[in-house]
């Protein structure tokens, strides 16, 4: 019996191939997916990892055996799969392990219209069926098996994104893009085709072994090449995508990273210009700046937990125009409430190209505070260390505590959030303050308690 507790996460399936899962298990997941979603048709895509084509074909066979017609869109980014799910009105499955190392693979699943599937919205039921069938044997295929066909959605995906942001009138821009040998190398040339953009392509060759660096731009080590190329060429902006190209990171003309919170605030202001008075979702680790900018532009900021299922649920509930996270996930009502780093990138290019100044000057208005970035501490007793921090701040004057997601402690001049990792024995600390000295003071206070 495979140990599905090791690979079925809160929002997706992810593990080492073939040690933790393989094509036989992928076929069972496809059958269970069709059964739980009651789908008569599904759409499936995959990234450039060596194991992805075989796993996705096996999943399709499983879905077809339960009577679902399968549309394979082949190589795609995760947001391209969400596009297909939304445009075709079909449940979808994307085979990717995002930024994980080459030996990993996974499945991100959604219902029709790119609605997320997580533990509380179908994934637990899918896991239960797969466990049962792995033990007892797969059910016999239905009499009316589904068909399996192919469809290319890249041009339609690109056209849809370009219909949402007008870049035709911007000044010419020199743009360096680091695809990290991931799916950005597949999507970026088509999305940017015909725009007034000079594209300087770094690591666009699709290679799921990641020969140049990990496709995880959240780690500063993985944007060093992008920063150097921007500085060396005098580019206007640099963009970095993760492995499945659903997250986008930005560096300015100096090669300096632009915080995802600043991108969230910038895009929120642009989206609110289209839909005044709308709600904007932000997770509790984004900067104070985000809520301030949303209010300044006539919108309503709504604070939520970290994680795409929470963001998407709040967007659906509130009708929010946009949502952003500190991890560079950006969600759009015009994109079925799904996350697309590519659309966020187009907004940044439009904002930059609509005025004459450099990006570093443009983002000053959206980057108002000092922050620590995420600091991880490996601890044996997550709950005990978090309780010690809570006790230390519980009675401090002028401080409020909330536990929407981990522990958030807020004062007039600073805040911090301390959250346990769902997958590792880590506590994650994020701090923001009005100046760097205060960030460092709070950092040292909290880490002394966490690492005691």
TrEMBL record:
<dbReference type="InterPro" id="IPR005844">
    <property type="entry name" value="A-D-PHexomutase_a/b/a-I"/>
</dbReference>
<keyword id="KW-0479">Metal-binding</keyword>
<dbReference type="InterPro" id="IPR005843">
    <property type="entry name" value="A-D-PHexomutase_C"/>
</dbReference>
<dbReference type="Pfam" id="PF02879">
    <property type="entry name" value="PGM_PMM_II"/>
</dbReference>
<dbReference type="InterPro" id="IPR005841">
    <property type="entry name" value="Alpha-D-phosphohexomutase_SF"/>
</dbReference>
<comment type="similarity">
    <text>Belongs to the phosphohexose mutase family.</text>
</comment>
<dbReference type="GO" id="GO:0016868">
    <property type="term" value="F:intramolecular phosphotransferase activity"/>
</dbReference>
<feature type="domain" description="Alpha-D-phosphohexomutase alpha/beta/alpha">
    <location>
        <begin position="7"/>
        <end position="132"/>
    </location>
</feature>
<dbReference type="Pfam" id="PF02880">
    <property type="entry name" value="PGM_PMM_III"/>
</dbReference>
<dbReference type="Pfam" id="PF00408">
    <property type="entry name" value="PGM_PMM_IV"/>
</dbReference>
<dbReference type="Pfam" id="PF02878">
    <property type="entry name" value="PGM_PMM_I"/>
</dbReference>
<keyword id="KW-0460">Magnesium</keyword>
<feature type="domain" description="Alpha-D-phosphohexomutase C-terminal">
    <location>
        <begin position="374"/>
        <end position="448"/>
    </location>
</feature>
<dbReference type="InterPro" id="IPR005846">
    <property type="entry name" value="A-D-PHexomutase_a/b/a-III"/>
</dbReference>
<dbReference type="GO" id="GO:0005975">
    <property type="term" value="P:carbohydrate metabolic process"/>
</dbReference>
<dbReference type="InterPro" id="IPR005845">
    <property type="entry name" value="A-D-PHexomutase_a/b/a-II"/>
</dbReference>
<feature type="domain" description="Alpha-D-phosphohexomutase alpha/beta/alpha">
    <location>
        <begin position="263"/>
        <end position="368"/>
    </location>
</feature>
<dbReference type="InterPro" id="IPR036900">
    <property type="entry name" value="A-D-PHexomutase_C_sf"/>
</dbReference>
<dbReference type="GO" id="GO:0046872">
    <property type="term" value="F:metal ion binding"/>
</dbReference>
<dbReference type="InterPro" id="IPR016055">
    <property type="entry name" value="A-D-PHexomutase_a/b/a-I/II/III"/>
</dbReference>
<keyword id="KW-0597">Phosphoprotein</keyword>
<feature type="domain" description="Alpha-D-phosphohexomutase alpha/beta/alpha">
    <location>
        <begin position="155"/>
        <end position="255"/>
    </location>
</feature>
<keyword id="KW-0413">Isomerase</keyword>
<protein>
    <submittedName>
        <fullName>Phosphomannomutase/phosphoglucomutase</fullName>
    </submittedName>
</protein>
